[in-house]
Specification:
single chain, alpha/beta, DNA polymerase, domain 1, 4 domains, 45% helix, globular
Amino acid sequence: MTNNEIADHFSLLSKLMDIHGENSFKSKSYSIAAFNIERLPGEVADMDDAQLFSQKGIGESTGKKIREIQDTGRLGLLDNIIASTPPGILDLLQIKGMGPKKIAQVWKEMGIESVGELEYACNENRLAALKGFGAKSQESILQNIQYFQQNLGFHLWASVEETATHFVTQLRKNFNDARVDLTGPVRRHLETLEYIDIITDADKMTLIAWLQHIPGIEITDTGWLTIHIPEQPKLKIHLTSREHYYQNLFNTTGSAEFLEAFNARYSIPATLNSEEEIFSVNNLQYIGPERRELPGILEFAAADEVKEVIQLSDIRAIIHSHSKWSDGQDTIEAMARAAIDKGYEYLVLSDHSQAAYYADGLKPEQIAAQHIEIDALNEKLKPFKIFKSIEADILGDGSLDYSPQVLETFDLVIASVHSNLKMSQEKAMSRVMAAIRNPFTTILGHPTGRLLLSRAGYPLDHKAVIDACAEYNVVIEINAHPRRLDLDWRWIAYAVEKGVLLSIDPDAHSVNGYKDVYYGVIAAQKGGLTAKQNLSSFTLAEFEAFLEKYRQRRCS
């Protein structure tokens, strides 16, 4: 190993000791050792023990640890502390502006253990209120997170959509005689992906020549072109002839499971004028790209039972939103007026409950004051209506975060897990099922607590949860935040089969958060959700009728 590689071990050990709050003198000594190793006059590999141990700032103790790293490639002390550190903490060290003390603070005070969780906290304006941070440092950290994520292998579909569309537009502009389309996972709107896949019948050599004008670009030709552009997601360009364009568009779009099932029963014509012809000649209803994931969709297409999926224009309300009363950035009136401007009929305000202390959750006396404000705004803004809700924490025993007397004051309750997320399936099921059985639970919020690319979420028996929601008439949220998209689209069909209503909700912490409804709709389309099966597509009158039935059931 080089001196710099050895020094990195000592430097990481020092930082992790600071994060864990260990002896600051020892921690600093390892940091100094790293500094001294980097500045040695020669490589330690070329020194015998006598030479190494006599170097300034090294000594026998540090020298033996250096030899341990050289001999084994590891440092026992470092291995031990890594074993007791959540893996995501190591990633946090890669975020500029997040030193050991700040990492320790967000970990111990907010439970943040990954880059994704840190990003989510920034987007919800939680970091700004933490001592030692502030709005400017929060924004800076958010920018640094985005840079970090651009260099990881996988990306959220939401984060690459604009880049993908822009690149296709540029190719079409510069190769106006060629066909160019998105394909693969990005065309299917898969929630996370490694590459932006593009298909074109442009001439390969002309295309490569054009691509080479992009600064820093790296092009690998392995039958397709793999494109690396600094600070951009990787691209994969599939090259095809004009004659076989639509065949290859189809074959590069669908998932492996979908294509295997299709090819086992159907065939692709040798000559095509459109992709739609592939379906028509096989007597299949057209299946949009976003639905070409699971083989089962072919059965519906054969029976002409692929229903028209929900559209963004079908969303009539903002359900699940936060205001300045808890951790939101805008006032209730600002949230309401923004909803009116966007054509929504009503707003469900659901600030955090008291257990969410990190989000300034509401105490019972604050709830009463908030409801007075909502009543006044409803008079002022009619016929638009603001509904009184709360995102009530599901506590460790499955109970909700207020007494029945307080819960009774809300029009509806969104029940969500926010704390102690590291649970066995048995514990998670016990907790969530108890909340579903609670007569005050109207909507089960972000059911698994997952954060895409950073947190898998607690394990649930999805079928049992959906069955229970059907039995107790609980709506399941499709949290539209692009890092959540929870309920996962793969369970939408089962929920619909069981008669469970779903609700596409932005979980908005500002008026800007309303845009996330778009991502929720995209995910819902993949699962085949229709507007009729989505609560946030209800008109105001339909929503009020729904709440009246909910109240009657609760009181019966």
